[in-house]
Amino acid sequence: MITTPDEIWRAVSAERTTLVELLEKLPETEWDHASLCAGWRVRDVVAHVVLSSRPTVLSLLANLIRARGSIPRLNLDSAIRYADATSSRQLLTDLRAVVPMRRTPPGTTPADRLMDVLVHIQDIALPLGLEYEMPTASARLALERVWRTRWLFRAQERFSGFRLTATDTTWTAGTGPAVEGTVADLLLLVAGRNARLSALTGEGAGTLPERSLRTLG
């Protein structure tokens, strides 16, 4: 179990390091490969991880105004601008620099930073056919955070009427037909990624409605 802020931040640093190691082996051409998020290239995902790891209030306010108050649009637009202005090598250098950082954007927590990097590693790894296994304890904490955070992913609303159950750790939520999978696969599901749907089992797995399966950024 990961419980204390220090444990969470150490897990964040470990996953950022994992992302650095994955990207170090990436051919230049694959930095422009599409990620799991519609409209996001690999380089845009990396730019977002860098920017969200070193937030400043002024930049967030300016970008929020530019995005007309939309957090998803803010995340995408600011990432694309930064990625377009920064070489792949510099993005990797910037990512290394934020590995130890312990900062959160206003209104978020260290658990959000852990969730963010866990999901974004898979946003890069899965489309490229790269192997990455989420640590179970980290994925469980991130899954619980997404489930309880109503303002962004709205997981409880989207999966209302289903019971989600992890098969590799103690975690379950909701009521209704069962949707079962590893905690990592459930995290991707509630975070709006559909790439691991085929790995889910249970009577509810094949009947999830469109509202549950739309891709989120």
Tell me the overall shape.
globular
Radius of gyration: 17 Å
| Ends distance | 28 Å
Number of strands: 3
**Fraction in beta strands:** under 5%
Helix content: 40-55%
What is the average of the pLDDT values?
91
- Strand ordering within the main sheet: 2-1-3
List the helices and strands and how they pair.
Layout lengths: L4 H20 L17 H12 L3 H10 L4 H14 L3 H11 L11 H19 L7 H13 L6 H4 L4 E4 L5 E2 L4 E4 L1 H8 L19 H4 L4
Parallel strand pairs: 1-3
Antiparallel strand pairs: 1-2
Outline the structure in words.
This protein has 217 residues and is mainly alpha-helical. It contains ten helices and three strands; from the N terminus they run H-H-H-H-H-H-H-H-E-E-E-H-H. Helix 3 crosses helix 4 and helix 6 packs across helix 7.
Give me some keywords for this one.
5% strand; globular; 3 strands; 217 residues; single chain; three-stranded mixed β-sheet; mainly alpha
Gist?
The chain is mainly alpha-helical. The protein has ten helices and three strands.
